Amino acid sequence: MDILAIYLRLSLEDRKVRENIPECAAVRMGAFSGDKQRCGENVLDCGVKQESNSISSQRMLLHSYIEQDEELKHFVRKEFCDDGWSGSSMDRPGMNRLLEEVKKNRIRCIIVKDLSRFSRDYIELGTYLNQILPFMGVRFIAVADRYDSREHCGSTIELDTAFKTLLYDLYSKDLSVKIKASFENKCASGEYVFGQAPFGYEKSRDRKNEVIVNEKEAVIVREIFSMACQGKSCVEIARILHERGIPVVRQMRNQKPAKKSGGYGTWSSSSVRKILKNRFYIGEMSYGKSVQDCVGSRKGKKAREEDWKVIPCHHEPLVTQEEFEKALCHARGHSTARKYDKHPLVGKLCCGGCGYAMVYKPASHYNKYRRFECYRHSVLKIPECCTYFSAELLEELVFFMVNKELMLRGEAVRQAGGVVEFLKSGIEDAKHSLRELCTKKKKAEDSFSTLYVRYAAGELTQDEYRRAADKAENEKNVLSEQILACKEKLCQMKEDQEKLGEDMRYAIRFSHMETLTQEMADIFIKRIYVCKNKRVEIEWNFKENGI
After folding, report:
1. For the whole model, what pTM was predicted?
2. Which of 26, 47, 92, 332 could link 85 by a cystine bridge, Cβ 3.0 to 4.6 Å?
């Protein structure tokens, strides 16, 4: 069976011109009888405006050409469509299905409006026209370019056709450069031309490409920074937001639930950390964060942060610079996320001679044993530098020192058993006192209404009522101060109890470890200094009165 493949393509840029148009199927398959009325109905059903490069005009042009050709009009027709896909890449849904049919030797002819519809890549297009399609015995027709591969049987494409394909390639890349330049010019002029505004902001409905504060979301952002400035970790902040029932970003913006879980999810440490590290909240707008490998490439890589283009005072900030730096410090300190596997001591090990970090060298044909090296020694030539240290020996030594420190702290906690019981008793007494004070305060507040009823009934004179009301007001203020002091005392005792319990939990949890782990290093070790005489000094991550 002879099958004629009709390929239609419309780039995303051309597609944006149209509004409220139903999306065409990626592949439309079926035999066409050649009835012009039926072809016209297809155009009307699709509802696309009559534009030069639109799907409908391409379809009309190709069917008209087929009907005028005595050979082609008897072929069974299959339509392949890529609506909204660039021609700079061959990785397109409709194109992939078309090539799959060609590989199965089902297609005898491919017809397109012009060569650029098939591909805008000069080298890729030449490969298909000169090698792949002739080898598979597939005829190729480009109507607008007056190209028919049957007329070039056994020879390469003519010079004018080759020149056209080159122009299509250059045009696509030139268009990419112009769009990127336009995008950067708008960013440089202060316009916000990105997608969705960061959480806490929204795009202005009155002024184009401008962001304004979303007060409903901004309250949550400020609260997150406030908790971070108080020393809370990202995990603690996420837990507090979840306990308070504060909706996540996706839910607040009425977006669709996640596809995998089917729900909106909950706050996580990564989402909190993302907010705390975003300099957009201090009024800065950054762009140029990624660069493409080449013009027209869909693949890119992240640019160095110092190469980003930053516009200060671009919009209204939600936090001050001091608050941002303080919150960011806490966010970094509590982050243990790893993007790739590495040695537990990497980033914590420093040379005792020069103070610079030591790098980890795994075993290879260059290094027989795993070791750490002072990478600055070859440049600075400081005699006191520890040029290298065995990784296995260091792991054993650090693990021994961590266990020794845990044993000392665990023993201290066990000896402080009386302190724990004292704290428990003190907490219960504080809770009892707090309940009594709250009850007294409630009675003082109720006395105001009682006094007014007596005054209205004539039982009290105006002076007696004022003296009694002032006395009740003073009593309420005193009780409020006592309640506040009792709450602070109760909170401090609970923190002391949690610190002692945390010391004991860590001592029990890690006492059975056999090797040094990443979690153990992150929790207990702040810095390790290795000296030339193989002496090791550890700067612990322990807090006062607790870990």
Report:
1. 0.38
2. 92
